[in-house]
Structure formats: structure tokens, C-alpha cells
């Protein structure tokens, strides 16, 4: 692509016709065009199609700054970073200027001097859309100088100018983001005086530095993210700053297990090129159910939330456990089994903020309970009770089945076939053919029966009949 290299070459082009167009107007025009063409606005962002994305779209069409409020792991940062793809692919800037000056309307003193001295020979540089997005994590040590800038006495002395001279300014992140998008994560963590410094930028679109009459009408879209708990009058946000942000948009976790499965499948690293691993559908659902059960658990702090990173990391560890077993036992086709989910316990314990009751039990015990509940939920929804009657009766007759931990998945099918009715129930759970998948399904049926307390398990003997008081009333039989 041949792009103009001087201001003279730029004249008469479509960019001259767009001079004076703000970044908000640019975003609005591109959003309108994508909506008209039926294109996806935020590719890769899932689960927000009927809620968050329409609200963000409305804010962009209204040319408003906005803030995303949500718990951790709700794709807030991903959504903000996706805004960059709504910008033009390239825009022209005056080469060498710090503020990405518009060649036809220079903002900085350096830009104005450049055009005045070189005229149409002034060199043009091209700024890509990715270079127009600047992101900053708010922390208590961030200063006004970091964001806005400061006066540099040494630079003023070298120029022989007064301290308030615009050329003596050392610009901060916000001026350097001119003609682009500036995103700040965890906004309430900024110190109060820094939040106050944002007032003028949000309201008037300009910056003032250390009380000197230096005014820079910046062209910016400001977007933020925050935790709802902090973004209140009782939290860390200053109310006047909150009032100046155009739209307050709430994010959320996946509304359905199906949405969660789709998000986890797109984010988790499961495509192991050196040794592909099979992941049965019921395993994917169980992994996702772990997150849903954790979010509903009274022992976990609801205000902290349970990140969507939990099922993503859990699935990755389960796949790795299957891969490890295949390497140790020389399996040709590794498949994720329900025992591999338990191997992913570290992905769960590190993401649970426990309340008092949970702390008394401990993170590992709580996580193990959640995994059992998730297995039970998936089992009850996928395996009809009638298909497991023969298996439950066999255990109630006093039979015991021990499942070795070091057996390869293909050989596991022969062992599981010794339990009457087990493989038949497994075939109803797993539609696809293959010994490995059948073995994984049969093992899941055993774990599901245990989770539903239809059979029991001991460390010494393995799977056995359930204790009478442990089985649900509908499942109890005569023990006389």
C-alpha cells in the first residue's frame, strides 16, 4: 500500500476531507458501517451478545466514555482491547511529534512549528490502530505526572524559556494517547488526587499542568474497568469522577453452561500438536460445572467471584494429566477421564476466596466437594436412572470393584466390563465409538453413582455398596 509521505502528498486525499474528525466520530462511523454490513463488532468476546455488547455499542454510538463494572475473570480487559479493531487501520501523523499530531491541525507546539517551517514538505508517519490503544493498570503509586505530565526545568533551561512554556512539558500517558483510546483498569485504585486530575479530561477534554495555563484539547476516548464493590460511595471512587463517565456497563459470568463451555473451549490450550488428546463432551461439561457450582457455594465469597479462568486452567491441567498418563503407559490415544479433573485441583484452590466456614474446611476440601457436586450434576442430567439399575444392584449384592490407578485407558474397558450393566450405561453417555471414549464414559458412570450416593467408595476396597443412610430416599433399597 502506497501511502503519502509528505503533507503535500496528503493534500487532496480522503484524509484531508476527514481532518478535524475526532476519534469518537471515527469509532461511531466504523460501528455504524459494521452494523450495516452485519459484521461482528467484538470477535472473540463470547457470552455478552444480548447484554454487554449492545450497551457498549450504544455508548460508542453516543460518543461516550464508559466503564465496565464486573468481578474478576469477566472479560473486561479483553472487551476493552477489542475496541482497537473499530479504529481505522492507519491514520496520518506528523513524523516526530509526541502527541500524534494531525498534519492538518497540529496540537503541539512542535507540530505547529514543523508545519510552519517545512510546509508541504513536512514528513508524514502512519500510526496503526494497535499503536493507538494505550492501557494502564491503576495502582496507588500512579501519579498525576505519570498520566498527565510534568514541567521539566532542565528542558526549560535548555530552551531558554519560562517554566510554563509548552515545549518544557514532559508529557504523560494521556497526552501521548492523543487521537486514540486510553484504557485504565481498576480505576478506583487510583489515589484521590489523581482521580481529580481526570476531571478536566473527561469534562473539557483538555489537560492543565501544575497550574500553568497550558491547555491541550486532547482527542481521546477514555474507557475504564472496575470491581463493583470498589465503585461505590463507600469504596474508593470519587463521586464527581463517577458522574463524569458517560456509561456504566455491568459485565457478568456466562449465563449458561453452554456459553461457558464455548468460552473455555476457545481460550483453553487443548490442541496439543505433538499428541492430540480426546476430550469427551461430558468432561467439558463437568469442568464448566465446577465453576458454576463454585459460584453458588456459600463457603466462597460471592463478592470476589469465581473467575472464568478457573475452568480454562482446570481443563488445561486435565488434558495434561491425560497426556502424562499416555506417555507413562504408552497409550496411543490419550483421552481425558474424570480422574484427570481431580488432577486439576490446583487450578481450583488458587482461585477460591473462602469465607469463614470455607477457611475452617480448607481450600482443597471445598474444591473437592465442588468437583463431586459437578460430577453429580452432569451425571444426573445425562444418565437415566433406569440404565444404572443393574450396576447398582450388583454393588448392593455385596460386590466390590477396585479401579487401579496405573492402568492404560484401552485396558480399562476390559476391567470395567466385569461390572454388570456398566458399559451399557456408558454407551448411553458417550455417543462416539472407540474403546478409549467408552472406558472414560464407564469410569464417569462409576464416579457419578458415587457422587449421587447410589454406591459408595473406600480407599481400601474401592467402589462398593452405599451405606443405607447415605443413599437418597428414592434410591434406597431394602438392606435386610
Keywords, separated by commas or semicolons:
elongated, 3 domains, about 45% helix, two-stranded antiparallel sheet, 22 helices, Rossmann fold, 5-stranded parallel β-sheet, alpha/beta, Helicase, Ruva Protein, domain 3, about 475 residues
Molecular structure report:
There is one protein chain. The protein has helices at 7-10, 14-17, 23-37, 52-61, 76-82, 109-118, 144-147, 153-159, 173-176, 192-203, 239-244, 257-267, 281-296, 309-329, 338-343, 345-349, 356-361, 363-382, 389-396, 409-416, 422-429, 435-451; strands spanning 66-69, 90-94, 124-128, 133-137, 149-151, 169-171, 180-185, 206-209, 212-217, 220-226, 247-250, 455-458, 462-465. With 480 residues, it is of the alpha/beta class. The protein has 3 domains: 7-250, 3-Layer(aba) Sandwich (Rossmann fold); 254-293 and 303-357, Helicase, Ruva Protein, domain 3 (Orthogonal Bundle), CATH 1.10.8; 383-480. The strands form 5 sheets. A 5-stranded parallel β-sheet has the order 4-7-10-1-11, with helices on one face. The protein has a two-stranded antiparallel sheet with strand order 2-3. A two-stranded antiparallel ribbon has the order 5-6. The chain is elongated. It starts with 6 loop residues before the first helix and ends in a 15-residue tail after the last strand.
Amino acid at each position: 500500500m502506497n501511502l503519502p509521505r509528505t503533507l503535500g502528498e496528503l493534500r487532496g486525499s480522503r484524509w484531508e476531507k476527514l481532518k478535524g474528525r475526532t476519534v469518537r466520530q471515527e469509532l461511531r462511523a466504523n460501528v455504524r458501517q459494521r452494523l450495516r454490513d452485519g459484521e461482528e463488532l467484538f470477535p472473540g468476546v463470547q457470552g455478552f451478545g444480548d447484554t454487554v455488547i449492545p450497551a457498549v455499542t450504544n455508548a460508542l454510538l453516543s460518543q461516550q466514555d464508559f466503564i465496565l463494572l464486573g468481578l474478576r475473570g469477566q472479560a473486561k480487559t479483553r472487551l476493552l482491547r477489542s475496541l482497537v479493531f473499530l479504529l481505522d487501520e492507519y491514520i496520518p501523523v506528523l513524523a516526530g511529534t509526541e502527541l500524534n499530531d494531525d498534519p492538518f491541525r497540529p496540537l503541539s507546539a512542535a507540530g505547529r512549528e514543523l508545519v510552519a517551517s517545512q510546509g508541504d514538505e513536512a514528513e508524514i508517519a502512519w500510526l496503526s490502530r494497535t499503536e493507538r490503544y494505550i492501557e494502564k493498570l491503576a495502582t496507588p503509586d500512579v501519579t498525576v505526572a505519570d498520566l498527565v505530565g510534568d514541567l521539566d526545568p532542565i528542558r526549560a533551561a535548555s530552551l531558554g524559556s519560562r517554566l510554563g512554556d509548552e515545549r518544557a512539558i514532559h508529557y504523560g500517558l494521556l497526552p501521548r494517547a492523543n487521537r486514540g483510546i486510553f484504557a485504565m483498569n481498576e480505576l478506583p485504585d487510583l489515589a484521590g488526587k489523581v482521580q481529580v486530575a481526570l476531571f478536566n479530561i473527561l469534562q473539557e477534554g483538555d489537560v492543565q499542568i501544575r497550574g500553568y495555563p497550558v491547555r491541550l484539547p486532547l482527542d481521546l476516548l477514555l474507557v475504564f474497568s472496575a470491581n463493583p464493590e470498589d465503585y461505590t460511595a463507600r469504596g474508593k471512587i470519587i463521586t464527581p469522577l463517577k458522574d463524569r463517565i458517560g456509561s456504566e456497563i455491568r459485565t457478568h459470568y456466562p449465563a449458561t453452561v453452554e456459553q461457558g463451555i464455548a468460552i473455555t473451549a476457545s481460550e483453553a490450550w487443548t490442541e496439543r500438536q505433538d499428541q492430540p488428546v480426546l476430550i469427551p463432551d461430558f468432561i467439558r461439561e463437568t469442568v464448566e460445572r465446577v465453576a458454576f457450582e463454585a459460584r453458588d457455594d456459600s463457603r466462597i465469597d460471592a463478592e470476589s467471584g469465581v473467575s472464568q479462568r478457573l475452568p480454562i486452567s482446570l481443563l488445561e491441567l486435565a488434558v495434561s494429566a491425560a497426556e502424562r498418563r499416555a506417555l507413562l503407559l504408552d497409550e496411543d490415544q490419550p483421552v481425558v477421564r474424570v480422574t484427570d479433573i481431580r488432577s486439576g485441583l490446583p487450578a481450583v484452590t488458587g482461585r477460591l476466596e473462602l469465607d469463614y466456614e470455607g477457611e475452617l474446611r480448607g481450600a482443597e476440601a471445598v474444591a473437592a466437594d465442588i468437583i463431586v457436586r459437578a460430577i453429580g450434576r452432569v451425571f444426573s442430567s445425562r444418565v437415566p436412572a433406569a440404565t444404572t439399575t443393574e450396576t447398582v444392584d450388583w454393588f448392593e449384592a455385596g460386590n466390590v470393584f477396585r479401579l487401579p490407578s496405573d492402568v492404560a485407558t484401552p485396558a480399562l474397558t476390559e476391567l470395567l466390563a466385569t461390572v454388570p450393566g456398566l458399559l451399557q450405561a456408558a454407551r448411553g453417555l458417550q455417543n462416539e465409538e472407540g474403546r478409549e471414549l467408552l472406558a472414560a464414559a464407564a469410569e464417569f458412570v462409576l464416579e457419578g453413582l458415587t457422587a449421587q450416593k447410589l454406591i459408595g467408595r473406600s480407599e481400601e476396597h474401592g467402589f462398593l455398596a452405599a451405606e443405607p443412610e447415605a443413599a437418597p430416599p428414592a434410591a434406597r433399597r431394602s438392606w435386610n
